Amino acid sequence: MTTLTPENSLSVMRSASFILGKNKSPVDKCEWNSYFDENGHLAMSRDFISTNILERGLHPFVRAEAWKFLTGYYSWRSSHEDRLMVDSMRRKNYESLCKMYEKIQPLLENVHRNFMETRNVIACDIQRLYGKDHLGNVIVDKKRLEKILLLSYICNVEAEYQQGFHEMVMLFQLMVEHDHEIFWLFQFFLQKTEHSCVINIGVRKNLEMLNELITFLDPIFAEHLKGKGAGAVQSLFPWFCLFFQRAFKTFDDVWRLWEVLLTGKPCRNFQVLVAYCMLQMVRDQVLRESMVGDDILMACNNLIDLEADELISASCLVYADLIQRKDIPIYETPNTSDNTINQEKMN
To answer: Which residues belong to any copy of the Rab-GAP TBC domain (predicted)?
Structure first.
């Protein structure tokens, strides 16, 4: 286990201060290109790049390419030529999965009751999406989105489909152009974040860690939540299922947080610290008004139009406080080796 030291704390506090700095600018295309040599090999350390993403974020023109590295779609050790080959392979694999789905679809419809139910749920979820912007321009192709979600449900035996995935995949559709990119980026995103947004895998663990964190850092609030606020924390599962998507002011804010989660900076399970900071926003009101469970949940649900930079900065400061107090294993810095998806499970 990595030992967390006061030096780590100072570094995190500097990052938190920089995030809220007035003169910060995101990593733009020119700077991103400078991270690689003429053959496309990485010329900077991954730690350097990840720290810059934590502190400054990515310019929208860089995000589509950078996320392919952050998720593991591309290896950080690859060259330009390698990446062309990988992209071609991913396209072919996606097309093979589509053909497989077309062949087995009649069988699924006839003998797989869950398939029919899930397909109906996906269709209903997608219909509720706003597919146009304020000018009436189509921004989401719902048919493409439905196809990708169904394929993901059939192929990803770990995550399957849960309500809310349609909103997440929509953001990938807005980021990249091709269906195979959308599909694979979403699969890699789930794996890179350790299926943390999946109810039966990571969400329960996140809620347990959040309870532990509140007990450790804020015993007074924890005692209230165990009494009058019984069940309030467990009711916050939508935060993790959507990675706080509905709490932010813009899609850019959502992408800003998600790319920080993908870096593994400043620590593993950073989403739990984010949730803790959001709870702290309602803490004083909850204690002052002696709120009960449902009222606490309503107050939490009213946390909207947040700014990612402020929330990331606050979460970094909580982490700095944590590692000065005690070495807690669940916030250990993760292994930074390439995260390559198990394609056998996906085929």
So the answer is: 57-265
- Quote the tokens at residue 100: 């497989």
Cis geometry, peptide bond prior to residue 219 (ω within 30 degrees of 0): no
* Cβ atoms within 10 Å, residue 108: 17
DSSP-based three-state secondary structure for 6: helix
- Indicate the number of domains in the chain: 1
Please report, for residues 21, 100, 167, 180, 303, the alpha-carbon distance to residue 94 in angstroms, rounded to integers and kept in the order given.
42, 10, 21, 6, 38
Please say if the pLDDT value at position 45 is more than 90. yes
Q: Is residue 63 part of a domain?
A: no
Quote the CA–CA distance of 83 and 95 in Å, as a whole number: 18
Residue 114 lies in a domain: yes
- 297 touches 236 (CB < 8 A): yes
Residue range of the domain that includes 82: 78-192
Confirm if 180 and 91 have CB atoms less than 8 A apart.
yes
Using an 8 Å Cβ cutoff, are 314 and 260 in contact?
A: no
By CB neighbour count within 10 A (0-12 exposed, 13-18 middle, 19+ buried), where does 83 fall? middle
Question: Would residue 340 count as lying in a domain?
Answer: no
Q: Using alpha carbons only, what angle is made at residue 312 by residues 307 and 315, rounded to the nearest 5 degrees?
A: 130
pLDDT for residue 328 is more than 60: no
Which pLDDT band, with edges at 50, 70 and 90, does 21 fall under?
low
Alpha-carbon 261 to chain mean position: 6
Average pLDDT value for residue range 268-295: 95
End-to-end CA separation in angstroms for the chain = 34
Residue 309 lies in a domain: no
Beta strands in 104-169 (DSSP E): none
Tell me which residue has tokens 């030992």.
Answer: 3
Q: Give the model confidence (pLDDT) of 123-151 as tens digits.
A: 999 998 887 666 667 688 999 999 999 99
